[in-house]
Amino acid sequence: MSSKTCLLDPYLLQVQNLSGGPGAEAVFKNLSFSWPAGLNWICGDVGTGKTSLLRILGGDLSPLSGTLQISSGDVFWADLSHAKHDHLTVQACWDSLQSQYPRWNTELLEDLAQALDMQRHRHKQLDMLSTGSRRKVMLIAALASGATVTLLDQPFASLDSASIRVIKEFLTEAAEAVNRAWVVADYEVPENFPMTHLLKLGP
User: Fold this and answer.
1) How far apart are CA 12 and CA 86, in angstroms?
2) Gap between the Cα atoms of 127 and 89, Å rounded
3) pTM for the predicted model, two decimal places
4) Strand 13-20 to 65-70 pairing
């Protein structure tokens, strides 16, 4: 049996004996951790379950066993890579996501859209964008969402160097957050990058 409940304590995210994967067989087993606000990392090679764990934390995938507890608030998880989103414009994606997050920061979205050179793409459908620009749509929404727990899957992949610098600067500041937990999944933590906790998956 698995459960997802709310809690009131210093930890925004708690996992106990969690097992899961994209199919019927567990990719990771019996994970247990408690994370407070700040910048937390999930690292591992291909096939170790990084994305599957994020999907479980975001409610997009059910665990095979274990419990998941999230502090009162909301969780941001969005995967805009699927073809079902192709017909949506950038602005339509942001409008749809904004309706789901009561602490959405419109001013921050505008600043990020400018910094990541996405203002000129707002009217375009997602299938007209490059892989990097499509990823920026999700990243801007995630950073502006105001969610208590924000889940990011390989946020630097396919981005140009200027955009990577913007995202890194934002996450460096996020590491000092006192009321938001950021969970980033990637192969490794960038050199000299802050972290609150690190979870390594795989052997």
Assistant:
1) 33
2) 9
3) 0.92
4) antiparallel
